[in-house]
Structure formats: C-alpha cells, structure tokens
Amino acid sequence: MIAATIDCADLEGMTRFWGQLLDVEFNTVEHFGFLAHAPDRKVTIWLQQVPEERAGKNRVHLDFVVDDLDAALERVRSFGGGVQERHQWQDFVWNTCTDPEGNVFDIMQAQQPEGSQ
Questions:
Q1: How many C-beta atoms lie closer than 10 Å to residue 33's C-beta?
Q2: What are phi and psi for residue 75, nearest 5 degrees?
Q3: What domains can you pick out in the chain, each with its CATH number?
Q4: Helix (H, G, I), strand (E, B) or coil at 11
Q5: What does the DSSP assignment read for 65-104?
Q6: In terms of Cα–Cα distance, which of 24, 22, 48 is closest to 38?
Q7: What is the tens place of the pLDDT at every residue in 71-83?
Q8: Rounded CA gap, 63 and 72, in Å?
Q9: In sequence order, which residues have a C-beta less than 8 Å from that of residue 108 and are 6 or more positions away?
Q10: Burial of 71 (0-12, 13-18, 19+ CB in 10 A)
Q11: What pTM was computed for the model?
C-alpha cells in the first residue's frame, strides 16, 4: 500500500486541517493534495477534490495512535474537526472523530509496554 486517499470538496480547507492535525506539510497540484515526502514514511495520505459531497457512512477509516488522547482530541476540535464517542475494548481506548467534511477517523491512546508504569 502506498497511500490512503480522502475525497473532499474543499481541498484547501482539508489540506489545512490534516496538515495541522498531523503536523506535516501538504503539497497541492491541481485537484490533489499530497503529504510532503519523508524518507521514513511508508504510507502517506492523499486528498482528492471531487465535485460531490460525501454521502452515508465511511466504509473505511484511518486509525492514529497518540501518547495523550485528550490533547489530541483538543487539537481535532481546534482545527475544525469533530469529536464523537469514546470507546473501550479490553485495554484499548479510542475516540471516533470527524474531519471538517465529516470523514470518520479514530484516535487511540498508546498502550504502555507490558511491565512498565
């Protein structure tokens, strides 16, 4: 896999949101936004401007892991995204979020290595 592509109506707004959230730069060419190249990045995110709005629930979503879940959720809100419900399964805790166009993604609290605390 080389990339996950997110369809969007507002390419400029979406590159700004995802760039701020991930603390990376996006390059845009015509109707596409590309996460700036980094040699250690195996998979990237592309944004593709499309004329139609998103309809219905996403059938695929992105998952991110962070050290501080509450701080990450505040960043989502401050950049124009939405924070939805919190979930827990066994020791895993995550929140479902949306970008400004309603695309769903999850942010998960990083797990402590076994035996540490």
A1: 23
A2: -65, -45
A3: 1-51 (3.30.720.120), 61-117 (3.10.180.10)
A4: helix
A5: EES-HHHHHHHHHHTT-EEEEEEEETTEEEEEEE-TT--E
A6: 24
A7: 999 999 999 999 9
A8: 13
A9: 63, 64, 65, 66, 69, 92, 93, 94
A10: exposed
A11: 0.85
